[in-house]
Amino acid sequence: MNYRGCKRRVAPELTEPAPRNLANSEKNTEIRGGRKEEILGTLVGWLMRGWAKTLRVQIDDRCGVTLPNSQLPPVIYAMWHNRIFTIPPIWARTSGRFRRAAVLTSASKDGTILARAMEVFQLQSVRGSSSRRAVAALIGMRRTLKEGIDICITPDGPRGPKYSFHPGIIKLAESSRAPIVAVHAAYSSAWRLKTWDMLVIPKPFSKVTVIFDEILVIPSKLDDAAFVTQLENVKSILLTGVDDA
């Protein structure tokens, strides 16, 4: 892979593999949600798009992902679930002009709403979560990365707890060799909803700073201890700048 011109965080390569299962089974593999959720999701997406146009946005790109001539291969974006209202419309106005991306969304009705909302920003969806369709989702994300499409994951989604860290993103990075880019959002003024993730809604005409962090390359063939170390490392990076952890 070509990382020329990109800042990178590199962990030491280890040699002994250790198997890890993302889910015990693939029960309840159907994707839920119907026409009502699809319409609601589209409306939510357009609301997000209109809302984002009122914001004063500052971009801090530390890996070159927003540059038209970036040499960065397909990446795995990692961001907290409560930033989901802000980052997709801003991504569409920056990286989305010349990069393709897909979002991991749950197979539930809420996941259908989110998937349709993401379509407004030309974001595809891979359906699944740590509790339902986990293996299918992992296979789908690896296939998507091979097709040259970025993947976006919220490690604490879809049900939390807030700022918890499910291991799937590390497993995906380890097996696909795709680098992780942590995405941060800081707000000059915002509301926090009384949802499980305390969803952040920036106030109209406020300032939002979005940081695309340095790339993080996860070594392959991690043993269990190294796997946990990488997980804690990425979690620590994502928590940088979070004021309510």
List the helices and strands and how they pair.
Elements: E1 8-10, H1 35-52, E2 56-61, E3 76-78, H2 87-93, E4 101-105, H3 109-119, E5 124-127, H4 134-146, E6 150-153, H5 168-176, E7 180-187, E8 190-192, E9 200-202, E10 207-217, H6 224-239
Parallel strand pairs: 1-10, 2-10, 3-6, 3-7, 4-5, 4-6
Antiparallel strand pairs: 7-10, 8-9
Helix pairs in contact: 1-3, 4-5
Provide an overview of this structure.
With 245 residues, this protein is of the alpha/beta class. It has one domain. It contains six helices and ten strands. The protein has helices at residues 35-52, 87-93, 109-119, 134-146, 168-176, 224-239, and strands at 8-10, 56-61, 76-78, 101-105, 124-127, 150-153, 180-187, 190-192, 200-202, 207-217. The longest helix has 18 residues, at 35-52.
